[in-house]
Write a structure and sequence with these properties.
- The complex is a heterodimer of chains A (about 525) and B (about 325).
- Chain A has 19 helices and 20 strands.
- Chain A folds into 3 domains: about 140 residues, DNA ligase i, domain 1 (Orthogonal Bundle), CATH 1.10.3260.10; about 200 residues, 2-Layer Sandwich (D-amino Acid Aminotransferase, Chain A, domain 1); about 120 residues, OB fold (Dihydrolipoamide Acetyltransferase, E2P).
- In chain B, β5, α1 and β6 form a beta-alpha-beta unit.
- The N and C termini of chain B lie far apart (about 40 Å).
- The chains are: A alpha+beta (about 525), B alpha/beta (about 325).
- At the A-B interface, α5 and α6 of A face α6 and α8 of B.
């Protein structure tokens, strides 16, 4: 645990990619496979569900530190991170040694959920007593499922690749999907190149698009581009191998059971097929997607009732083929992969497996016109893909562009604020905004992002000086500051007091030139929702 | 009910009986100053009183034309029947607690203070009183400091490691107090040291007061050429991301502040390292000091006011919040 904690802080204490990579290389060369397996598991963003409730953690901390629960809560508001608050407040006892990472995880962390509270308590105190403050922080993050460290996936892949002298694209592929954090699992990831890649369920790394930055003309001839709608659903990879079907989300979650309609397609696919596409809630009557809010009703539910399945049917809009008849075809050009895909979907011929529509046009102006109608299509804009491009790993520039539509914007007034977490601990960064309705400000959106650090500090100081009332961590604020908010869509909502729900709200700019009376009204949002 | 000995009004913390203000935020006739940080020592008052040790620092802050009178530690002055005296607060050079006595009642206004010894200023002196006005900049139990020598060992190790990689070490710290404490505490034999102009002016004041500090270079081109790739640069946080820093070449940056105790704040600073070194009392020493003054009444100012006051009330003390406009310099500066 000491060595893993050291790695965590080495990465945490530098902003240099090169130093982070060096720290990873050193760790993976030094650590025994059993520990390295778990380190890789956690560093790649995999999590073990919270194995102990926050209430128990706080109770044990309160007893051991002799601090009142309210004071622990105050500390939490300042620190903005439960794991760190616990680590800072627990008395330093440092009795004994924590042992290696795999032992701590396998012998203490994994059994934790099954224990009754008194045994959990004993186990927690035993673990905390043996640790210093840094180890406590890392351990607390692990057991609360909040372990995150400033290592992008590509950096981790590079670190392991360097430590074992392997290409990082190979490591990227081997890390996809599920693998066991065991000695064998780790050895499979780091095995020599000729051991190959693909396990039965192994997805390919998703190819990701860049936002379009340059004028369209710079992309060259329209004929060289495949142009499709950009859908707002769940990016998914449908895999059929050795008689088994799996669906992986872009977050590398296995979602086969959640999208059973799509999974049912699997039986109709030949072995050795991998399709890339977007899972969408579909309106068969109008032959277009349902709003994302409908899809949200399905995500996050473990069991799907017949009513929901009938109301919100899901389809896969396929747009690429990565594996055909057991052969990895990612190095074939898109135009060829597309032909294969169309052949395949035509043969399967099921309503739940659709092929993405290719938009037609003779010049970029045609596409600009079609992009303008994206909202009516429930689409976020257009995707532009180079016809001669390979299916590359990661987010390479220049082959897939997303050309999104401009967001809606409104001016709204800051009315509530709460302190942020993580990097924004102790600063008021989580804001609630209101718009006018019958002479009062009604809350319509929460937003966290979009301001510069300097603006955040200024708004923070304003909030401290203009607090009207405190409700736990939330403060109501004198309604004086106006912000321009951008958002992707507005839906009518019965769950919100305002009657509308906005999607992806964020701050565009602080309108210091506007007074609160200049802010928009709820009527404006209602019209957008109706339109 | 008798009038309180000290009361806040629109100008600051006022002693009606003695006709003076302590650390007023607006210009007044007579200002009694705890220490020379900007939120406690504001310009424009007709007459300033402070400790003799603090007088040159205050003069540097307020300008040569200000009327400043210094009193030796513990020397008493009678102002309309109110006796005042200055006692070391251990925060920066010349920082004082102000003892105010009237008709047998004693108040002590702590200003900012720390109890850990610091070679750049006189050590905190415990003064018994009836009412103790305490700061609370770090008034939460998450704030606990390591001994100074441990922190300096970390700073020296960081400098040495940068040196080995051919990088300049850039350390951001409050220009008055913390910067000089760092200079006095780092292992100056590791390499050359340069300071920002905002730090330099107070280095001169500290030296003139007899505080031993290592040789430093100015952060001009000549100085930069010497420290580049091997030396240590000490600069105020406002210099972060400034063009001035570019001349020091490839560097590793760090902040030295009590706020660095919280990882989120450390990460927000986007510096490579954060060293937890504060010139304020941490939670255990706040509690210890409050207890040791023997005060029956605690008035809590700038910082985690409501939290510390509530804690004290729950632990058998009589405590309340005293609203002031001090920001706690670490909040702004560090």
């Amino acid at each position: 645990m000491k060595r893993f904690t050291q790695l965590f802080f080495e990465i945490d204490q530098t902003n240099r990619t090169s130093e982070k990579t060096e720290a990873l290389v050193r760790y993976f060369r030094e650590a025994p496979d059993a520990d390295a397996a778990w380190a890789l598991y956690f560093l790649s963003g995999r999590r073990i569900n919270r194995s102990v409730g926050t209430n128990l953690l706080r109770t044990v901390l309160s007893e051991e530190s002799e601090l009142a629960p309210w004071l622990i809560d105050e500390c939490f508001d300042t620190v903005g991170d439960l794991a760190e608050t616990l680590a800072l407040l627990y008395p330093d006892r440092a009795r004994g040694d924590t042992g290696p990472l795999h032992q701590l995880v396998e012998e203490r962390m994994l059994p934790l959920p099954a224990l009754a509270d008194p045994e959990k308590r004993t186990l927690l105190i035993g673990a905390w007593d043996s640790m210093d403050a840094q180890e406590r922080l890392v351990w607390n993050k692990l057991i609360t499922g909040s372990f995150r460290v400033g290592v992008a996936r590509t950096l981790l892949e590079r670190g392991i690749a360097q430590a074992f002298g392997l290409p990082s694209t190979l490591i990227a592929h081997r890390l996809m999907g599920s693998w066991e954090p065991s000695i064998e699992g780790f050895r499979a990831v780091t095995a020599p190149e000729d051991h190959g890649v693909v396990g039965v369920s192994q997805p390919y790394p998703f190819l990701l698009a860049h936002p379009l930055e340059n004028p369209l003309e710079m992309l060259g001839a329209v004929e060289d581009w495949q142009i499709e709608w950009k859908w707002d659903g769940i990016r998914a990879q449908l895999i059929r191998r050795q008689g088994e079907t799996q669906i992986w989300s872009r977050g590398e979650e296995l979602v086969t059971d959640r999208f059973q309609e799509i999974a049912a397609v699997g039986g109709h696919l030949p072995d050795g097929t991998v399709i890339d596409g977007e899972a969408l809630a579909w309106d068969f009557a109008h032959d277009c997607p349902l709003p994302f809010a409908q899809m949200q009703r399905r995500i996050g539910r473990k069991t799907l009732g017949p009513k929901l399945l009938a109301e919100v049917p899901v389809v896969l809009v396929a747009f690429d083929l990565m594996e055909r008849l057991g052969t990895d075809i990612r190095l074939d050009p898109l135009s060829k992969r597309r032909n294969y895909l169309e052949e395949l979907t035509a043969r399967v011929n099921l309503p739940q497996l659709r092929t993405s529509t290719l938009l037609a046009g003779t010049d970029w102006g045609d596409f600009a016109t079609q992009r303008a109608s994206s909202r009516e299509m429930q689409s976020e804009g257009l995707m532009l893909k180079a016809r001669n491009s390979i299916y590359a790993t990661g987010r390479p520039r220049g082959i897939w562009w997303k050309w999104k539509i401009d967001p809606h914007t409104i001016d709204a007034v800051l009315i509530y604020a709460q302190q942020g977490s993580g990097k924004r601990a102790s600063l008021f960064t989580d804001y609630t905004f209101g718009v006018w309705n019958e002479g009062a400000l009604v809350p319509v959106a929460k937003a966290y992002s979009g301001l510069t650090d300097a603006e955040i500090r200024e708004v923070d100081s304003f909030i401290r000086q203009n607090t009207i009332e405190r409700f736990g961590p939330v403060r109501s604020v004198t309604p004086l500051l106006v912000f321009e908010l951008a958002f992707e869509g507005v839906q009518k909502s019965t769950r919100h007091k305002s009657g509308v729900a906005v999607r992806f709200p964020r701050m565009v700019r602080w309108r210091q030139d506007k007074r609160p009376t200049d802010a928009d009204s709820l009527e404006t949002l209602r019209r957008l929702a109706a339109g | 009910m008798t009038a309180r000995l000290l009361e806040t009004n629109e100008n600051g913390l006022y002693c009606a009986a003695g006709g003076f203000y302590i650390d007023p935020w607006l210009p007044v006739e007579r200002a009694v100053i705890t220490h020379a940080h900007a939120d406690h020592a504001r310009p424009g008052s007709s007459e300033y009183l402070c400790s003799s040790r603090g007088a040159p620092v205050l003069r540097e802050r307020l300008g040569p034309d200000s009327s400043i009178t210094g009193l030796a530690w513990s020397e008493e002055l009678d102002l309309q029947g109110v006796r005042i005296s200055f006692h070391p607060a251990g925060h920066i050079l010349g920082s004082s607690q102000i003892r105010v006595e009237h008709k047998g009642e004693v108040w002590v206004v702590s200003g900012d203070y720390k109890t850990e010894p610091d070679r750049t200023c006189d050590s905190f002196e415990l003064v018994r009183c009836n009412t103790f006005v305490t700061e609370s900049t770090f008034g939460l139990p998450i704030y606990k400091w390591l001994p100074e020598r441990d922190v300096f060992a970390e700073i020296n190790a960081w400098w040495a490691s940068n040196l080995a990689k051919g990088r300049t070490s850039v350390l951001f710290a409050y220009a008055l107090g913390k910067a000089q404490r760092l200079l006095a505490g780092v292992e100056s034999s590791l390499g050359p040291i340069a300071v920002h102009g905002a730090v330099q002016r107070f280095v001169d004041v500290y030296r003139a007061a007899g505080v031993l500090l290592p040789d430093v270079m100015r952060g001009d081109d000549a100085g930069a050429a010497k420290v580049k790739g091997c030396g240590l640069v000490i600069a105020p946080p406002s210099a972060a991301n400034s063009p001035w820093l570019r001349k020091f070449g490839e560097s590793s940056s760090a902040f030295a502040s009590g706020w660095m105790r919280v990882r989120g704040i450390r990460r927000r600073r986007a510096a490579d390292r954060g060293f937890v070194l504060s010139d304020h009392a941490d939670w255990p020493s706040l509690l210890h000091t409050i207890e040791a003054t023997g005060a029956e009444r605690i008035e809590v100012t700038h910082g985690y006011v409501t939290q510390l006051a509530r804690y004290l009330n729950e632990h058998g003390k009589s405590a309340g919040a005293l609203a002031t406009q001090y920001t706690g310099d670490e909040e702004m500066g560090e």
